[in-house]
Structures are given as structure tokens and as C-alpha cells.
Amino acid sequence: MANRHILGIYLVLLLAGPAMSASSETEYFAVFMEGKKVGFAIQSRVVADSTSSPRAEGKVTTTVKVSITISRADVPVTLDWSKTSIETTDGEPLGFETVQKLGTMAMKITGTVNKQGKVYVTTHSMGSEKKNEVEWPSGAVMAEGVRLLTLKKGLKEGTQYSVKIFDPVELQAIDAQIRIGPKQNVDLLGRVVTLTKVTTAYNIPDAGEIISTSYVDNDLRDQKALMFLARLHIELVACTKEFALGENDVFEVLDKMFLASPKPLGDVQTAKSITYHISPKPRAENLAVPSGDNQKVQRFKDGRIIVTVEPVVTPTGVKFPYKGTDPTILQATKPTRFVQSDRKEIIDLARQAVGRTGDAGEAVRKIEAFVARYVENKSLSVGYASAAEVAASRQGDCTEFAVLTAAMCRAVGIPSQVVTGVAYVKDFAGFQGFGGHAWTQAYIGDRWVGIDAAFNSAGRGGYGPGHIALAVGNGDPEGFFKLVNTMGQFKIDMVIVNK
């Protein structure tokens, strides 16, 4: 089962890096989850002058590094990220770099911004690189731009303003609303300091709102930050370098990705359909639950949601590759950063799995069975791997099964998407209920068909009515942030199994 709280934490930490004073300096923070120290964050800000490189003069470089170690079913995994923003002293964007090391896998994205607002992006992964060009989001700023705006607005209680923060991973702007609160006495690891409360609401596209509460000193530097992600309480506290980089506690997160079932459901694979009555929690009235070929969603004025999951029957006699013109379906045939369907090793695996069949439905089932066997080491030690990385390592959990399945489908011209949501299990590492999960869907004929190589591999029968989809995408890790955020926003009140 997927366990992706950390991906959401990464996004918020890198977007909301602590503000810093005008001088060059480095700040250290300890990261806590549920009161246990799990890692550190470091932010540095360097203003280049004439004594450094002449080409760098007038540039401000801000770097945030985050490292967290968590445990999943007693399997430790360390996840590292860094983000560097390069701007003028006026806050104009010049370039950026972000590095993600999720377990054993690493990816680097670099970008430069020209005066015409063109962004030239290079993605480096597994010894290869891809280049593309996008437009800079109008009005978006990075670290120095946020710092300058914060200085301009000040710390008067009641002050409110908005800002667009550039996300270098998704290459888009995140809307944030900031409100200045009162001064409060705040405990900083036993040291009580008077600080100003600052609340920031991040509006994450397709995932809803995340609230971060910071406490800043008179120089506008963060000293403490709090946020809730799903059922997890996360804190960053300014501290000494020695404490930040010191020993961590063991923190088990697996239980945070499970939802209780109102009753034991038995073998859900034998059901024709299952109907779920869902209640959003306060402030989650706009909970996003997609309706599609495999699940129908009813919404009521009081916020209640009824989801009926009835897997479609796989069509027969459909040829591939896809020859249609629907832009959404065509998009699902293209390679992406994590679903590299154009890589030779992926194409070779797909052809090996499919063999000589010309039927799309049969091909998809062969790919599902192939991936179920191919991933030999069902390991929770992988933070998040791309399809090409899974093809090389042959290890991972449900997310790795899902991205490899999607990539192999696309490699032979069958449109596919990665689905994130929850799925019912009678037992997983001692847990029973609905666990965070990832699977794949493939477009065959005129419908999306669910496939689950991870469940197939574990002897759970593959995709079935025990799966509730919460988001659909291209397999990027940000999709799991949406899952994590959504999971904390509802509970399942009633389940009706239709035989």
C-alpha cells in the first residue's frame, strides 16, 4: 500500500521555506512529526557582490534542503530534497534547481528564465536528460520575491495579502493567501520567545487547501512552523546546527495511511459493486472525488458523498495502438518524467509482455501479469521511483507497480493513467481497512479499465470494487500529495456490498 505523507510535506516545505533577513546566512531547523524528530531543514541565502564572480554580481541564491527519515512497517527510508532559487536583488526570477532523492532514486530539474518569460527546463534522471520549454507563470515569484513582499507588507496584525509562488517541480504557480496574526509567546524547544503568528493558506491545484502556521521574529525570520497533513502533525523549529543534524527518532507512518471500515468486508473481489457513504470533515465540503467509468459519484447539499464502484468489463476485439483524436486520451499515450514509455528498456519489456496479441484487452492483462511477476522485491524502502528506475531495480511498492504498468501500456500505444486512492485489505502489516494505494487504468475501446499489478502480485486479485479513486494523473509524485491531503478530509460511514 502507498504511504505518501512525505511527498506532501516536501511540497509545502519547499514552497514555504523560512523567510530570511537581508544578510547572507544559514538557518537550521529540526523537523518533527507527532512530536518525534525525523529530520532537518536547512536554508541559506547568498547575495553575490563584486568580490565573488562578476557574472554572479547582483544575484540572490536561496537554497532549501530537507532530509527526513521515516519508517514504514519497520522499514526505514530516508528522503532528501533541495530547491535552489536564483533571482535578482529585485526578486526577478533567473533560474532554479530542484533535486529529489526518494529512497534510492534521484531526479534533478534545472531551469533558466529569460527576460521574455521563457523557461528552459532540463530534467536529469538515470543518466539521461530531457529538455522542454514553458512560459513563466504570470506574477509568480520565488524565494527572494516572497521575502521582499513580506518585508513590504510588514507584521501589523490583521494585514492580509496574496502571492503566487513558483513550484519548480510542477512548473506552475501555487496561490497562497497570507494573514498576519497577533504576537504570542512560543516554545522553541524549551526557550519561550515572543513571536508574530503568520498563517498561510496554499491552494494546491486539484488537491485543495493546505494551511501552514508560522511564528516569525521581528526580522521576519521563521522560528517555528506548524502544519497538518491528513492526520499528521508536522513542526519545524529553528535550532542549532548540532541538534538539527543530530540523531532522529524512529517514526512509523504506515498507520497514518489507513482509514477505518465501518465493518469487515471479507473478500471484496467477489462483489459486483460496492457503495460507499462518505462524510467530508469540516472545511472539506468541496472534497474532490472523481466520477468515471468504474465509479459513480453522487453529491448532496449537506456535503455527503455516495460513491458506487463497479468495475467495467474489459472490452474484447479492440486493436492497438490507439488511433483516435481525443486530446485527453492522446495525452495518456505520451511519455512523462515518471512514466518514461519512450525508453528502450520499457519498450522491450512491453513487447516481451504483450507478445503477438493484437487485442488491447488481452495485452493489458498480459502487462498486468508481467509486472506482477517482474517486480521481485516488494520493498517499502523505495520512496518513489520512476518506471525506468523500477525496470532497472525490480523493486518497490504499489506506486512502483503502477508507474511501470502505465509506462508499458503507453509503450505499445495503449493509453494509460496512474490512479491514486484507497483500497480495502483484510490484512496488511497488521492493519485492516482502507489503505492509501496506487493502481493503473488503461483506455480500451471507449472506456477506462482498472488494472492493479500490485494486488495481482500479492494474491489480492487485482483491481476490484474495493478500490476508491481519489485522483488520476501521469504518475508524478505530486499526485500522491493530493491523495495524502484528501485522505485526512473524510471518513467512510457506511459500506454496502452488492453481490
Mean pLDDT reading:
87
- What helical percentage do the residues reach? 10-25%
Q: What about the largest sheet?
A: 15 strands, mixed
Alpha-beta content class: alpha+beta
Order of strands in the sheet with the most strands?
8-7-6-5-4-3-2-1-15-14-13-12-11-10-9
The radius of gyration is 23 Å
Distance from first to last alpha carbon:
25 Å
* Spatial shape: globular
Q: Based on DSSP secondary structure assignment, what is the total number of beta strands?
A: 24
* Number of helical elements: 10
Weakly predicted, low-confidence segments: 1-8
DSSP strand content:
35-45%
Number of domains: 2
Structure at a glance:
With 499 residues, the chain is α+β, with helices and mostly antiparallel strands. 19% of the residues lie in helices and 43% in strands.
What can you tell me about this protein's structure?
This protein has helices at residues 5-15, 143-153, 241-244, 327-331, 344-354, 360-374, 387-393, 398-411, 453-457, 478-487; strands at 25-33, 36-47, 59-72, 75-88, 93-102, 105-113, 118-125, 128-135, 140-141, 160-167, 172-188, 191-204, 208-216, 222-229, 232-238, 258-259, 273-280, 295-299, 305-309, 416-428, 431-444, 447-451, 467-473, 490-498. The model is unreliable at 1-8 (pLDDT under 50). The chain has a 15-stranded mixed beta sheet. The protein has 2 domains: 5-252, no CATH class; 257-498, C8orf32 fold. It is an alpha+beta fold. Helix 1 crosses helix 10 and helix 7 packs across helix 8 (398-411). It contains 10 helices and 24 strands.
